[in-house]
Design a protein that fits this description.
heterodimer; A: alpha/beta; Peroxisomal Thiolase, Chain A, domain 1; six-stranded mixed beta sheet; five-stranded mixed beta sheet; 9 helices; globular; B: mainly alpha; Non-ribosomal Peptide Synthetase Peptidyl Carrier Protein, Chain A; 4 helices
Chain lengths: 366, 75
């Protein structure tokens, strides 16, 4: 039977950082037709997003969240055994951005570092990786950085912009601290899946396969202007996929544990768009009141949607009673996954807003 | 379910007045048949007929009749 069980580990802190500038979707009326804008807002449920300044990257926000978390919780950085950075938009092709954040946080040499390229399942996969590392190492903590600031979505000069990208994706960075407690009742359980067959339903090109690809922008068969270096999403295909795999995976997960939806306080689902989240919740028979959403305020923050929702929902709560929660991610890969954990609201910090840019990282020709 | 009842379901989905659609209506001519409607169509087919519509099938729909033909409860 697949799936993983981690005992004696828990999520002991979550923090988030977003840029200060708010972009309101209704302000696209004019650039786009009013009925198009209204429809997108209706389907996605996204009214506004936070938008980073041009030179701010995911690692700037991830660092800000991590620095806040480690400082406020007074964490001994010598006890951090690994930093995992999950993003689709690293600062460089190499080295991995985890090394940059490692440097900026002044982590010890005994702390390993690497990046993970994942989108919508970045948090659920990331939690599993963090727990797996933590169980085997002598140190007490693993730091999981999850966030995205896409750098390929400036469509302002296009005649037929991809309006769902324009009005859907928000910028944010998050940091989660996993702690080894050696307490048998601290349990994190995971079920993670992958299937590359339909990878073309969601992609961002621009790597080694595009060595001969032109940079020109053309109108694709769906009427949207794109280059070979843009992101592409088959909206209907992703909707059909998500609403099929996510409920099935959550139901199987609960059944295996002899549990029902009633055993959980809240369900944190990847905030793809409101139509998908509502549909997945309905098919899994989850009461909508148990599905916190960060969509309206932050949009689809890609790999960061689950921790952003945690921060948005629990960041201002002082309650120190453990809550049983279920996370479910689904998307690019294609991949999907379910993770159960306990969260103490007082361990979740409120959202930090910053426009900080690590200009030292803008390396000039030597 | 009669053809008339199925047409009424589609009119409801697209928020159109009763009697607006007929079997021969071209989907391209319906302003309301947009990407959101197609998502609602996927949901309706799952809920009412246990039928899974994929992207290629939806792209292949040219007339209302093409959709009606799929609105048959799966065995």
């Amino acid at each position: 039977m697949p799936g993983a069980l981690f005992k004696g580990v828990r999520i002991s802190g979550v923090a988030g950082a977003a840029p200060t500038k708010t972009v309101y979707n209704k302000d696209f009326i004019g650039q786009l037709e009013e009925n198009v804008v209204t429809r997108v807002i209706q389907v996605t449920g996204i009214e506004q997003v936070q938008r980073a300044k041009r030179r701010q990257t995911a690692s700037d926000l991830g660092f800000a969240a991590a620095e806040k978390l480690l400082t406020e919780k007074n964490i001994d950085r010598k006890e951090i055994g690994a930093i995992i950075n999950v993003t689709e938009f690293p600062d460089y092709i190499a080295p991995a951005t985890a090394f940059i954040i490692h440097k900026r946080l002044e982590l010890p040499q005994t702390c390993m570092a690497f990046d993970v390229n994942l989108g919508c399942t970045g948090y659920v996969y990331g939690l599993h990786l963090a727990c797996a590392l933590l169980q085997a190492m002598t140190q007490k903590y693993v730091l999981l950085i999850v966030g995205d600031v896409p750098k390929n979505n400036d469509f302002s000069d296009r005649k037929n912009p991809d309006h769902s990208y324009l009005m859907m994706f928000g910028d944010a960075g998050t940091a989660t601290l996993l702690e080894k407690t050696n307490n048998e009742s601290d349990v994190i359980e995971t079920d993670l899946f992958a299937d590359g067959t339909d990878f073309k339903k969601l992609y961002t090109l621009g790597g080694a396969r595009c060595v001969d690809a032109p940079r020109t922008v053309n109108t694709w068969s769906d009427g949207i202007d794109r280059s070979m270096f843009d992101s592409y999403m088959d909206g209907m295909g992703v909707f059909a996929f998500s609403t099929k795999v996510a409920p099935k995976a959550m139901k199987a997960f609960l059944k295996r544990r002899g549990e029902t939806v009633d055993d959980y306080k809240d369900f944190y689902l990847h905030q793809a768009n409101k139509m998908i989240v509502d549909r997945v919740a309905k098919l899994t028979r989850i009461d909508p009141v148990k599905v916190p959403m960060s969509l309206q305020k932050y949009g689809n923050t890609n790999c960061g949607t689950i921790p952003v929702t945690l921060v948005d929902h629990l960041g201002n709560e002082d309650n120190s009673v453990d809550q049983k929660v279920l996370f479910c991610g689904f998307g690019v890969g294609l991949s999907w996954g379910v993770v159960s954990a306990t969260i103490r609201p007082s361990d979740v910090l409120p959202m930090e807003f910053t426009d900080d840019i690590w200009t030292e990282g803008e390396i000039q020709p030597q | 379910m009669t053809e008339l009842e199925k047409l009424a379901m589609l009119e409801d989905l697209m928020e159109l007045d009763e009697g607006t659609l007929s079997e021969d209506t071209l989907l391209n001519d319906i302003n309301e048949y947009d990407s959101m409607t197609k998502l609602s169509l996927i949901v309706m087919m799952q809920d009412e007929f246990d039928v899974e519509l994929d992207t290629d099938t939806i792209k292949g729909f040219k007339t209302v009749g093409d959709i009606l033909a799929k609105m048959i409860k799966a065995e």
